[in-house]
Amino acid sequence: MIIVDRPEVLVVGYAVRTSAAVESDPSRAQLSALWARAGAPGAFAHVPGRVDENIYAVLIDYESDHKGAYTQIVGVAVRTAARLPEGMVAVRVPAVQALKVEGRGPQALAEAWQQVWRFTEAGGLPQRAFTTDLEVHHQAGVDLYLALLPRHTPSAPDPDLDAAQA
After folding, report:
1. CA atoms of 128 and 139, how far apart (whole Å)
2. Which of 59, 95, 57, 60 is nearest to 77 (CA)?
3. pLDDT in tens, 3-38
4. Which residue ranges does the record assign to the AraC effector-binding domain (predicted)?
5. Domain residue limits at 146
6. Binning pLDDT at 50, 70 and 90, where does residue 82 land?
7. Are 87 and 132 in contact (CB under 8 A)?
8. What CATH number should be reported for the domain holding residue 125?
9. Is 132 helix (H, G, I), strand (E, B) or coil?
10. ω before 126 within 30° of 0 (cis)?
11. What is the end-to-end Cα distance of the chain in Å, rounded?
């Protein structure tokens, strides 16, 4: 985990509103269907102005913290969202200071989020802002960018962060 300046990105994709409680109940869970839709062949072929081949997941509109409801949008980064394909939404992910967590390997996403949840539950510093978080899925794995409350200098060593990882 390191602190970085996350650049702004514009994402176009499919959205659902959910929570950890909803996702723990298979009869109500929505994220697997969202990811299946986004992962279908050609799901984003008709989105103009793609920036790269990565898949982005944006977590926004947090009700409170990691236990409350939030909206997840799964899509692609674009230069502009002038013409939205039917059924898709656009979200501008603001530039912020973020905690970057890298996940690699077959269970990259699950392991990265487990690390984040342990850190959050332990009251780790720096504190998450619960405003706009971002997952960037690429060939090597996934990078999570968790928005932080203002306090830290980018890329500076952080003794609280180092202790949390130990």
Report:
1. 27
2. 57
3. 999 999 999 999 999 888 889 888 888 899 999 999
4. 1-149
5. 2-165
6. confident
7. no
8. 3.20.80.10
9. coil
10. yes
11. 11
